[in-house]
Protein 1
Amino acid sequence: MVIAVILAAVAAIWLAVLMFLRRVWFYRDPAREPERNEAGMIVAPADGRVVYIRKIEDGGLFAEKLGEKIPLTEITGCDTNNTQGWAIGIYMSPLDVHFNYCPYPSSVESIYRKHAKVNFPMLDVWEYIRVVWLRKMVDMFERKYHLENERNTIFLAGGGLKMAVVLIADKFVAKIKCFVEEGQPLNYSQKLGFICRGSQVDLILFSNNVEFEVGVNQQVYGGKTVIARIDSGAPVLAGPAPLENQGPEAKSAG
């Protein structure tokens, strides 16, 4: 009888903790601002761990496992006119803040949405334990979810820099919310959107003149951590153009 009462109490505590994490902690909204103020700095668009930093050449990112380039259009979900630059991916675990933030003073050029019939899981059970609880990163580049899951891509331009923030859904994501609209001016750390539950955010920088200050497996904080610097006088490169039968979409996915 005593054991049954203890087990019931433990189960109730665990249930309360899970409900708190799911209903309260997950939706927390801390105030965010850049950790320092320097010209040309770029801040993280999301909380999480850096899963990759890749050079974009001739419109693609080289995938060692495949022995070929992955077209940038498969990540953004729309044509980018074979732009050169850099891409950085940030995995957001359920323990991270899930709001997404403006990485650089800019204006919203366009918003595109790519639908998916099925969203694939980003991690299996063991990988989830490694990443979320053991804080050890696994190789998440070149995976099926990265190219095929539903996503919202927000193109930004300002201060001589064009960029794209790609919000990628995980299998269990309920909704991708977008808080901005085309033509809207933004400053550092303003909210771009919110992804419900675990997910990934990629930042595409359409410039070769980028110096990163973070590395793979490093924890970053959206709207706060300076992840890179760029010469603010760099020329504006080619911007995005929609693929056939694809254009600006509604501001939420899911």
Note: The radius of gyration is 19 Å.
Protein 2
Amino acid sequence: MRKKKTFTIAGILIAILVVIFGGYMYFSSSNAEKNATSTEMAQVQRMKIKSTVSATGTIRPVDSVEVSSKITARIKSVLVKENDHVTAGQTVAILDGKDYEASNDQAEYKLINAKSKYNRVSYLNSIGAKSQEEMEDAQLTYDTAASNLEKTQSDLSETVIVAPMDGIVVGEPKSAGTMAVQGNSNPTVIMTIANMSTKQILAKVDETDIGSVKVGQ
């Protein structure tokens, strides 16, 4: 009886071990299938790594012109405003030309008199009534008058201010009534015109990032 009981207990233990081993094998197989299912295949590709540099700066046009006057005169009218598009040769402002008109009228009058005198002296010289020296003086007077008229005509033409290039009016132009002063060192800037199709950035870049910035980038 005792021997039979011993066999029964041994059978139960063997059955338990079989169940445990079977469960272990089942769960191991299930996990292996899950791992195999979640695995993805991808082709290795060579790609570029982008480096970004952040900085604070100001955007400016590459090509811009400060429009000023070649004569000193008061601005009579301004025909454009900020952000207006202009074309080369377009009239953008007009200066008060009263003084230059008066000077031009005087120069024309002097040239007429000088030409009349030259013609008279030339005739008298041809018949021996005037000397060669008087002829040369008349010629000099005529040449001087012609040169003065050319100067006054040039000044008068400068009362019309035109755009030197195609572009956009940047900033507010000087207003009518402002005195436009000529000069090579510090002339009055009537307006600024810029070509906004090409721009540049003026920025402060950290010295650790400057190696990543290149010309034309």
Note: The chain has three domains: 1-35, 58-96+162-205, 98-158.
Protein 3
Amino acid sequence: MIRLLVAALALALAQEQTEPARRFARAVELQRSGALKEAEAEYRALLAASPGHAEAQANLGAVLMRLDRYDEAVAAYEAALRLAPGLTPVLLNLGIAHYRKGEFDRAVAALKSFLERSPGNLQATQLAGLALVELGRDAEAAEYLRRAAAQAEDAGTLYALGLACLRLRSAELGGVIERLKHVAGGEAHAHLLGGLAHLDRSEFRDAVRELEVARALNHDLPRLHYSLGLGYLRLGRSAQALAS
């Protein structure tokens, strides 16, 4: 009888210990299949029973990110890091969440912490540079963006690098514009940067010419219409300025 009781107790303990693992596996399966609401519910149920489950907190953050609920995602990632500071990938995800919230200073802090542990990571290097551009910390941004562009040239990285160079009055700008012309989708960005450089030098006719080419290539570029409107205004073309 005693042996039977011990065996029953051992079985109950084993089932109790494996239940969080089963629930976690179920939540991961739902997450991978795209059933995000169901995955969220499963992770939250698991965390209610096992609040110290760091991986569940981290995965809950990823689910919330995909649902565009960035405040909650940040809270989940921060909770995961409190439970398990060694979960290095969570720092990258936290940086991305802050970036999407427009909290660029916090994004930079998280991404720098991640890069201390995973130096050379392209995504983190690129995103840190973009966040620093948004903060106007152009010299620092240029360092990150140069490293990112050395690993993989793309229009977004080179455009941000060019914008930083423009603000810094760096002679590097011309080279960045030339590089942009030779990457996919980069030609429009190259003309936009050229137009911005002409505006900066009060060369309004040249600025408008470059910006109109950029508009013809890609109507949706950031800063394009405002800059073109400013150029038109300086040339006395008020109707076109208002339209832009």
Note: DSSP finds 14 helices and no strands in the chain.
